[in-house]
TrEMBL record, chain A:
GO terms for biological process: siderophore-iron import into cell. It is found in: Cell membrane. It comes from the Bacteria. Coiled coil: none annotated. PANTHER family: FE(3+) DICITRATE TRANSPORT SYSTEM PERMEASE PROTEIN FECC-RELATED (PTHR30472:SF1), FERRIC ENTEROBACTIN TRANSPORT SYSTEM PERMEASE PROTEIN (PTHR30472). The keyword Membrane applies. This is Iron complex transport system permease protein. InterPro entries: ABC_BtuC-like, ABC_transptr_permease_BtuC. The chain crosses the membrane at residues 54-74, 86-107, 113-132, 144-164, 232-257, 277-296, 302-320. It comes from Paractinoplanes atraurantiacus. SUPFAM superfamilies: ABC transporter involved in vitamin B12 uptake, BtuC. The lineage of its organism: Bacteria, Bacillati, Actinomycetota, Actinomycetes, Micromonosporales. Belongs to the binding-protein-dependent transport system permease family. FecCD subfamily.
UniProtKB/TrEMBL annotation, chain B:
Belongs to the binding-protein-dependent transport system permease family. FecCD subfamily. It comes from the Bacteria. PANTHER family: FERRIC ENTEROBACTIN TRANSPORT SYSTEM PERMEASE PROTEIN, FERRIC ENTEROBACTIN TRANSPORT SYSTEM PERMEASE PROTEIN FEPG. This is Iron complex transport system permease protein. It is a multi-pass membrane protein. It comes from Paractinoplanes atraurantiacus. One of its GO terms (molecular function) is transmembrane transporter activity. Signal peptide: none annotated. InterPro entries: ABC_BtuC-like, ABC_transptr_permease_BtuC. One of its GO terms (cellular component) is plasma membrane. It is found in: Cell membrane. It holds the Pfam family FecCD.
Length: 328, 341
C-alpha cells in the first residue's frame, strides 16, 4: 500500500518535472521537450531547455528533496510540529554567512557560498535549539518558535549592517534572499550533489533512531538508543541538507514545515516511511510552486520562495490553531 | 493591611522616581542631539533658536531643517515603540511577544514598502498606509487565533507565521525595482531617523497626543489582567474588551512609529523588560517603557552618527547590534524561570 503510494508520487513528480521543462515565459510543446531531452539540437527551444530549464528543474528536485528530508528530521529531533528551517532562524544564519562570503571574502561561486551557508546554518541551529531548550519543559514548540523569530531578527540586523555599505553585495543578495530556482547553472547541481548525498544517507540512517526518540528520551534510552549520538547524526544531516539547499535555492520557507505533515498523514508516524515520502513530496510541491510562479506573472515571474510562503502561511496557521499542539 | 498599603505606596513612589529620572535623561539626550555635530551649536543657542530668538548665521537652518526633525522623530518613535512593546508583552504575559517578533511590525513594513516602491506615495500617505497595514495584520492575526477567545500562546505562534510570510513579500518587492531604489528602501527597512521632514513627524506627534493618555488609562486594567483571565474577570475587568482596546492602541503606536522611522529593531522588544527591571515589583510599566524607548533610540542614533568611526550607521543597525546579545540573555533567563512559555 505505502509502496504503491511512493510509485504514484514518483510518477506525479516526473509529470511535474516535465511541466517545469515545458512551461515558462515561452511555452514549449511536450514533443519538443522530449526531443530536446533525447537528442538536443541548436534550435532556440532546445537551447532554452538544455541551458536554462534542465538545470532549473534539477535544482528544484534536489533542493526540494533536501528541504523535505530536513523538515522531517528537524521536526523529529525537536519533537516539534512547527519546526521549520525558516521559522527556527536557520535560514537567517545561512543568509548572514552568505552575505559575509559575498561581501568580505568576495566569493561568487556556489561552492564558495555552500561552506559559508553550512557554517551559518550549523551555528544558528545549535544556538536556537540551545536557547529554546533551556529551562522548564525542554524545547516546547512556542519556546523554539520565539527563539527562532528573535534570533532571525538579530541576525537580520547584522546582515543589513553589512549590506548597507555595499550595494553590489546587496544586489546579489536580494535575489538570493527571496528563494528562486532561476538562473542556476548546471555546475550548481554537480557541486551540491555530494553534500546532498551524504546528508540523505545520514537522514535515512537516523530513521530508526527518530522513531525511538519520538517516545521520549527515557524510553529511547531504555531501548538501547544513544540519544545524544542519534541527535548529533540527525543534526549533521539537517545542517548538510538545509545548508546546501539554502545555498542553492535561497531561503525557501514553509516547505520543510508542510511536507512532513502531509507525509505523516499518509504514512503514520514511522520515520522509515515518512522520510522517503517527504523526499518525493517536497520536490513535487516545489516544482509545482515554481511552475505557478512562472505562469501567474507572465512575461515576468514570481520567485518560488514567494509562492511557497503564500501557500505555507495558511498551513502554519492551521497547525498553530490546533487545540493541543501535541509534541510529536 | 497597613503593610500592604506602605509597600504599595513605596513601589508607586519608586515608579514615579524612575519616570522622572528617565524623563530628564531623555531631555538631556535630546539637547545633546540638537547641539552636537559637525557644526557645534552651544546650548544657549539651541534654546534661543527653539524660542525663535536671533542666533548666529546658519544655526536656525541646521536646527529647524536637520537636527530638530531628527531628534523629534527619534524621541517620538522611540516613545511609541516602547509603549507598543510594553503593551504587547504585558498583555500576552510573555517578554518575547513584542510587535516586532509577532508580525505586526512586519505588516506595517510590508504596507509601507508597497506604498513607497510600488505606489510611489510619500509623506502622510505612507504613514496612513503603514498604519492600515499594521492594523489589518493585527486584526488578521487576532481573528486567525480566535477560538473561544484568544489564547496568548496561539496569538504569538500565528503572528510569527504571518510575519514570516510578510517578510517574504517584502523581499519580493525589493527584487522588483532598481538597485538604488531598493538600497534606499533597505535603509528605511533597517530603521533610520535621518532626513525626516515635518510631514512625517506631525502625524506621529498627533497620534501620540491621543494614544499616550489612552494607553495609560487602559493600562490600569493590566495589573488585574496579569493575574490571569479568570481572576481578572472576577475583579470586574472586561477582559476581551480591554485586551482588544489595548491591542489596537499598541498596533496604532507601532504602525505610526514604523511609518515615521521604519521598523527600528528591538526597541519595542527591549524597552519593556528594561523598564520592569528599573521599576521592580512586577507591576505593569507603560510610561516608563515608553521613556526607555525614547532614550534608547536617541542614544543609538547618537552612537550611530558620531561614535562608530567615519561611517554613519542608521539607528536600526545600532539597536539591532545592542539588542542581539540582550535578547539572547533574556531568552536564556526567561526560559530558566519558566516565563518564556
Amino acid at each position: 500500500m505505502l509502496t504503491t503510494g511512493l510509485v504514484v508520487i514518483t510518477v506525479a513528480l516526473a509529470g511535474a518535472a516535465l511541466l517545469s521543462l515545458a512551461v515558462g515565459a515561452r511555452d514549449i510543446p511536450f514533443g519538443t521537450v522530449m526531443h530536446a531531452l533525447v537528442n538536443p539540437s541548436d534550435s532556440r527551444d532546445d537551447l532554452i531547455i538544455t541551458q536554462s530549464r534542465i538545470p532549473r528543474t534539477l535544482v528544484g528536485l534536489l533542493a526540494g528533496a533536501a528541504f523535505g528530508l530536513a523538515g522531517t528530521l528537524i521536526q523529529g529531533v525537536t519533537r516539534n510540529p512547527l519546526a521549520d528551517p525558516g521559522i527556527l532562524g536557520v535560514n537567517a544564519g545561512a543568509g548572514l554567512f552568505v552575505v559575509i562570503a559575498i561581501s568580505i571574502f568576495s566569493v561568487t561561486t556556489l561552492t564558495g557560498y555552500v561552506w559559508f551557508g553550512f557554517i551559518g546554518a550549523a551555528i544558528t541551529s545549535v544556538l536556537v535549539y540551545t536557547i529554546g531548550s533551556v529551562g522548564r519543559g525542554g524545547a516546547t514548540p512556542i519556546k523554539l518558535a520565539l527563539a527562532g523569530a528573535a534570533v532571525t531578527a538579530a541576525l537580520t540586523s547584522f546582515t543589513t549592517a553589512v549590506l548597507l555599505n555595499d550595494v553590489d553585495t546587496f544586489d546579489q543578495f536580494r535575489f538570493w534572499q527571496v528563494g528562486s530556482l532561476a538562473n542556476r547553472g548546471s555546475d550548481v547541481v554537480v557541486q551540491s550533489l555530494p553534500f546532498l548525498a551524504v546528508g540523505a544517507v545520514l537522514a535515512f540512517a537516523s530513521a530508526r533512531a527518530l522513531n525511538a526518540l519520538a517516545l521520549g528520551d527515557d524510553v529511547a534510552t531504555s531501548f538501547g538508543q544513544n540519544v545524544l549520538v542519534a541527535r548529533l547524526v540527525a543534526g549533521l544531516a539537517i545542517v548538510l541538507l538545509c545548508g546546501t539547499a539554502t545555498s542553492m535555492a535561497g531561503p525557501i520557507v514553509f516547505i520543510g514545515l508542510m511536507i512532513p505533515h502531509v507525509a505523516r498523514a499518509i504514512t503514520g508516524p514511522d520515520h522509515r516511511w515518512m522520510l522517503p515520502y517527504s523526499m518525493l513530496l517536497a520536490p513535487l510541491l516545489l516544482l509545482l510552486a515554481d511552475v505557478i510562479g512562472r505562469v501567474v506573472a507572465r512575461p515576468g515571474e514570481v520567485q518560488v520562495g514567494i509562492v511557497t510562503a503564500i501557500i505555507g502561511a495558511p498551513v502554519f496557521v492551521i497547525l498553530a490553531r490546533r487545540r493541543r499542539l501535541a509534541e510529536l | 493591611m497597613s503593610i500592604v498599603a506602605t509597600t504599595r505606596r513605596r513601589s508607586a513612589s519608586r515608579a514615579r522616581r524612575v519616570s522622572s529620572v528617565l524623563f530628564v535623561a531623555v531631555v538631556a539626550m535630546f539637547a545633546l542631539t540638537l547641539s552636537y555635530g559637525e557644526f557645534q551649536i552651544s546650548l544657549p543657542d539651541v534654546v534661543r533658536s527653539l524660542l525663535g530668538l536671533p542666533t548666529p548665521a546658519g544655526v536656525d537652518y541646521i536646527m529647524h531643517s536637520l537636527r530638530l526633525p531628527r531628534a523629534s522623530v527619534a524621541a517620538l518613535a522611540g516613545l511609541a515603540f516602547g509603549l507598543a512593546g510594553a503593551i504587547f508583552q504585558q498583555l500576552l504575559r510573555n517578554p518575547l511577544a513584542s510587535p516586532d517578533v509577532i508580525g505586526v511590525a512586519q505588516g506595517a513594513t510590508t504596507a509601507a514598502v508597497l506604498a513607497v516602491m510600488v505606489g510611489g506615495f510619500s509623506g502622510v500617505a505612507v504613514s496612513a498606509i503603514a498604519l492600515t497595514g499594521g492594523l489589518v495584520t493585527a486584526i488578521a492575526i487576532y481573528l486567525l487565533s480566535w477560538r473561544n477567545g484568544v489564547g496568548a500562546y496561539r496569538l504569538i505562534l500565528v503572528g510569527i507565521g504571518v510575519g514570516t510570510a510578510l517578510t517574504s513579500v517584502t523581499s519580493f518587492i525589493l527584487t522588483r525595482s532598481d538597485v538604488k531604489v531598493a538600497a534606499e528602501a533597505l535603509i528605511w527597512l533597517t530603521g533610520s531617523v535621518n532626513g525626516r521632514t515635518w510631514s512625517q513627524i506631525v502625524p506621529l506627534f498627533v497620534a501620540l497626543i491621543v494614544l499616550l493618555p489612552l494607553t495609560l488609562i487602559l493600562g490600569r486594567a493590566l495589573s488585574g489582567m496579569q493575574l490571569g483571565d479568570d481572576l481578572a474577570r472576577a475583579f470586574g475587568v472586561r477582559v476581551e474588551t480591554c485586551r482588544l482596546a489595548l491591542l489596537l492602541t499598541g498596533v496604532c503606536l507601532a504602525g505610526m512609529a514604523t511609518a515615521a522611522a521604519g521598523p527600528i529593531a528591538f526597541v519595542a522588544f527591549m524597552s519593556g523588560p528594561i523598564a520592569v527591571r528599573l521599576v521592580g515589583g512586577g507591576r505593569p510599566v507603560l510610561l516608563q517603557a515608553g521613556l526607555v524607548g525614547a532614550l534608547l533610540v536617541l542614544v543609538a542614533d547618537f552612537a550611530g552618527s558620531h561614535l562608530l568611526g567615519s561611517r554613519v550607521y542608521p539607528v536600526g543597525v545600532v539597536t539591532g547590534v545592542i539588542g542581539a546579545p540582550y535578547l539572547l540573555w533574556l531568552l536564556a533567563t526567561s526560559n530558566r524561570t519558566g516565563r518564556g512559555g
